[in-house]
Amino acid sequence: MIRSAFRSFVLSLMLVLPLTACGDENGDAGAVSAARTFYDIVLKARSSGVPDDELRAELRPVISPDLDSLIAQAAEAERRHTERTNNEEPPYLQGDIFSSLFEGATGYEIGPCVDAGENGETSLRCDVMLVHDAENEPVQWTDRVVLAGRGGPEDRLWLVDNIEYGGDWDFAPKGSLKDSLRAVIAEEE
Questions:
Q1: 53 with 164: CB under 8 angstroms?
Q2: Residues 143, 165: contact at Cβ < 8 Å?
């Protein structure tokens, strides 16, 4: 049963692969590439809570300046919280903040992307099918990565700007990564 569920997930990913290999529906493979680079870094790091300076430096080339700034502000808020409580309280954010599952993902595939731009913004929202392959049973879910485009159509640079959580189980985070970071910042203002 466990292997069967995982095989079904892998087969569904194989159906999506031909679509993502050609880029998103807007013809911009750069967005899919940026999302893959981001998830490769995040899955390799297996971090918990707000990223440290080393992980932030690694993520900086693939995340938007706005997201980078929020992560830095949240890290500072966590530092103040630790100092104020003499390290007697846990951090505000724990577990993998880049996905809906506390333990994080062990695999992913970028799905279809749609235009998400508002007020003239160049933005895409891509489904990301994630899996955590636990010993007893794999967990599967879909989050959405929001990418902001910079530059013109010929030289567009895509940067991860947000993660919209899609987990539907008890205790899954709701909202988005930016919402979570802003909540931490507000706690220590």
A1: no
A2: yes
What is the distance between the alpha carbons of residues 42 and 46, in angstroms, rounded to a whole number? 6
Q: Which helix (H) or strand (E) holds 35?
A: helix 29-45
Contact indicator for 24, 113 with CB cutoff of 8 Å? yes
How many C-alpha atoms does 139 have within 13 Å on its Cβ side?
17
Q: How many angstroms separate the CA atoms of 115 and 38, rounded?
A: 19
What is the H or E stretch that residue 74 is in?
A: helix 65-84
- Computed on alpha carbons and rounded to an integer, the radius of gyration of the chain in Å comes to 17
- List, for residues 25-82, the tens digit of each pLDDT value: 444 688 999 999 999 999 999 999 999 999 999 999 999 999 999 999 999 999 999 9
Half-sphere exposure of 28 (CA within 13 A, CB side): 26
Partners of 159 in beta bridges: 148
Residue type, 47: S
